[in-house]
Amino acid sequence: MEGVFKPWLSIELAKSTYAPGESIEGIIYLLVKEEVPLGSVLSLQFLGKEKTQWSTLNELPGSDDRISHSGKQEIINLQAIIYQFKEQIPSSTIIQIPFKIPLDISLPSSLSYFSGSCDLAQVKYILRARLDDIFTQADSGFQSQKLKRVVFIQQKSLIDSAQSQISIARKIKNLLVFNKGQTNIDIYLSKDSYESNDIAQIMMKIDNQNCQKDLKSIVVELYREVLLQQTNTDDQNLIFRESQVLMRNKFVGIKKGEQEFNQFDIKLLDITVDQNNNKQSYMKMMKSLQKKQNNDELLMLENLIPSSKGHIIEVNYNLKFKFKHQGIIIGTEIPQVKLPIWIQCPQIDFSHHKLPFRLADYNILQQDIQVLENSMTRGSCFTILDNMQQDKIRHQSQYFMLPQRIHDDQNQDIAQNKEEFNDHQVEEFKFDQIIVQEDYV
């Protein structure tokens, strides 16, 4: 498993990238180095958001001002308490809690996109563990601990095989009236989706047997279209649209009276991106937000952004085909056609960015450390389900058990304390969500 380890908390995941419909599986390691107050709870949250930001020129005459547009859309927000300290835990103990988070099939891909005209388009998912003391007073000296980790999602192809092929039959006319016969062309892709290190194979069957003109050339272009929307404004229909040709290849056609089956290859790794511009825009934004740069996000900016269909962000790739017959000046030719292509990227091993301090390393340094099985999850794992709202939080009695010892007064009203505990935890979740949103880029 790939992990990020801190002195108190560690989150290890089975892999670095997940697809919608899968489940995030991992283990939280909680290192107890000193006494943890009874009643302390460990919570886990999985949050996903889309964020857009761009500007347009003010249309008022003589104005050079720019108008800012932005959008935020929460995609997913799952949270639950997964462990509670009901008894004293010896120091130098590691509590390990397996967990599982089922992912909705409609989640869009993780992406970070910056350009000269688009300040920001980002889809980001974070997994956050937090250890809080609920009952002890603020002057107890105990500090809440938290750990945040980015999770990468790759959306599966939304293009079916029917969309990945097209047939064209066109009569060729010169000077609008002179019929020069007909050309038939069938185009299809070798598969529905490609990875960023793939070679996209385009299969093309050209039948020019019944045409009196040579098919002089075939031009294939790969272009990307980015669509962004804003939110929280009266004009929510305002859309930012940016199209860019990423690759253009020109191929020789075929002679009149012939037919041919061709395969055109496009090596996606040859597609260059403006790495410096993307990185500079990213670093400028992080500096303005007074946040640290993320190595994984910087690595993503060196690659193509993935195809994605979200609520306010959409990234589409298309192959455009242009055909030119010899000697046709003013007339009827084969029209431009396009095929959608789904690109899953980037194919990056994020594991080499993890911190070197791992659980195994700690075991080597601390021979007296012991691993404590969590009785609540022994033999299984904790599963975080959707729609865990306030009512469900109140009724998760198996996870919201009253601590065995709150303080020295043993004559407390147990029912009252339990209700206060639940009410307090609901407010903690609300406050925690606000913090996550503030920290979220």
TrEMBL record:
<dbReference type="Pfam" id="PF00339">
    <property type="entry name" value="Arrestin_N"/>
</dbReference>
<feature type="domain" description="Arrestin C-terminal-like">
    <location>
        <begin position="180"/>
        <end position="343"/>
    </location>
</feature>
<dbReference type="InterPro" id="IPR050357">
    <property type="entry name" value="Arrestin_domain-protein"/>
</dbReference>
<feature type="domain" description="Arrestin-like N-terminal">
    <location>
        <begin position="15"/>
        <end position="133"/>
    </location>
</feature>
<dbReference type="GO" id="GO:0005737">
    <property type="term" value="C:cytoplasm"/>
</dbReference>
<protein>
    <recommendedName>
        <fullName>Arrestin-like N-terminal domain-containing protein</fullName>
    </recommendedName>
</protein>
<dbReference type="InterPro" id="IPR011022">
    <property type="entry name" value="Arrestin_C-like"/>
</dbReference>
<dbReference type="InterPro" id="IPR014752">
    <property type="entry name" value="Arrestin-like_C"/>
</dbReference>
<dbReference type="Pfam" id="PF02752">
    <property type="entry name" value="Arrestin_C"/>
</dbReference>
<dbReference type="InterPro" id="IPR011021">
    <property type="entry name" value="Arrestin-like_N"/>
</dbReference>
<dbReference type="GO" id="GO:0015031">
    <property type="term" value="P:protein transport"/>
</dbReference>
